[in-house]
Design a protein that fits this description.
161 residues, mainly beta, six-stranded antiparallel β-sheet, four-stranded antiparallel β-sheet, 1 helix
């Protein structure tokens, strides 16, 4: 098996050994809701290219993202520890450790996870890395689109942030 520069020497690792990405790439004023979010790119650590896996830690009061949906990417979430509130068009649902949620590509049902508890929560996010994917944020003036092969945040009218 060939290894990429970013893949580990063994086929297993402790996620705590990976450097977390803290916060998001959202423009203000949307970044503050997720400023304390920690993501560890587990899939990237192994050189996975067909799907991505992130371990996400959300401290109390933090959201996983702005409420959103994907045009071409399926998403799956597995709660590992703690308690998260899933917010969708149909309302809020509490997810406890061991519970899962799935979001098919193209279903215009904005979703986000919010930690409304008093302790950290930990989950896995899995997505299929579709190059055609665009993200719609139905509650705010924000879209994520691919422009010249790179993701770009835009206003609803298409002007860049």
């Amino acid at each position: 098996m060939s290894r990429t520069k970013s893949s580990p020497l063994t086929p297993a690792l402790d996620p705590a050994t990976l450097e977390p990405r803290i916060g998001s790439g959202y423009p203000e004023p949307f970044a503050s809701d997720v400023a304390a979010r920690e993501k560890r790119a587990l899939g990237d650590a192994f050189g996975l290219t067909r799907f991505g896996v992130n371990q996400v830690r959300l401290p109390p009061g933090c959201a996983s993202s702005q409420r959103h949906w994907h045009s071409h990417e399926d998403e799956f979430v597995y709660v590992l520890d703690g308690e998260l509130t899933l917010v969708t068009d149909t309302g809020a649902q509490v997810l406890k450790a061991g519970m899962v949620a799935g979001f098919p590509a193209g279903r215009a049902d904005g979703h986000q996870l919010v930690n409304r508890s008093d302790r950290d929560a930990l989950c896995l996010e899995v997505g299929d890395r579709s190059a055609k994917d665009e993200v719609t944020y139905p509650d705010i003036d924000l879209r994520l689109r691919t422009v010249n092969g790179k993701y770009q945040f835009q206003h609803e009218d298409g002007t860049p942030y």
